[in-house]
Amino acid sequence: MSFACGHGEQAGVPGVVSLRRPCPVCMLLHETQRSRSELLGRVAPPERRALAGETRVGARYTWRCARGHDRYTATVLDVLTGPSCAKCMANAAAPGAAREAGMAFMKPGLRVGTSMTEQRLRMLLGERIRLHHRVNAVRIRRMFYGKQEVWPDILVPQLRVAVEYDDPGRSRRAHLGLKEASDLEKDDALREVGWEVIRIRAGGLESFGPYSVVCRTLTVEAVDEVVRLMAEIRGQAAVDALRVDAASAS
To answer: What's the whole-number average pLDDT of the chain?
Structure first.
């Protein structure tokens, strides 16, 4: 079988069915916002050549742990959507890790794409409450995509509230399917360590629950609703303590 991404059997060969869509592995990589080169960097070197042309998400390979633990066997699906090696999962549940759970910190060199809309959200929110600009990650008690941390769009550590902006993007597929499940798991991981998540769900995305702001696009009213929800979650006094007065905002 041949796929539009170029993986699979050679197109045009008698008996080979050509499909006008990417292979399952490339579709999963796109949905989890990963690349095949990133995946190749995690597999054991002897298996890189096979993985370079792999089309099956259920295919099993030997993977290297990013923290230097023993190699482990898992499917492509498990590696892209699951936690990590057994030792990493055990370490995440250790007492020392539990003491750091919920801590907001600055991770140097963190590369997370920020859209113009997310930048506007940060600006509008910063006109209403003081934002902490020296944190970009939160320690959690579980492994999430092979790391014991998550990186929300905006963190308000004084309130232990994270703000996320979701829209389907140009592809109309972002934050849907596996990515939606990943977003829900991320929210659960934050709640486990005492944080709450407010999600702005734009562009036709459905609500995630009581702390979702559903809108067509980012508006001033949507940001005001985020601030109102912060007060509902942590109390009006806690939010008022972070208010930016009109003089300093101008």
So the answer is: 89
Q: Which two tokens stand for residue 190?
A: 């934050």
Our CA angle for 159, 136, 115, nearest 5°, is 105
Does residue 246 register a pLDDT over 70? Answer: no
Q: List residues bridging with 214 in a β-sheet.
A: 201
The amino acid sitting at 25 is: V
CB neighbours of 213 closer than 8 A, spacing ≥ 6?
A: 198, 199, 200, 201, 222, 225, 226, 229
Cα Rg, the chain, nearest whole Å? 21
Per the CB < 8 A criterion, the answer to whether 195 and 160 are in contact is yes
Read off the pTM: 0.76
- Using the predicted structure, report yes or no on whether residue 51 has a pLDDT greater than 60: yes
Q: For the purposes of burial, counting CB atoms within 10 Å of the CB of 11, is it exposed (0-12), middle (13-18) or buried (19 or more)?
A: middle
Q: How confident is residue 176, by pLDDT bands cut at 50, 70 and 90?
A: confident
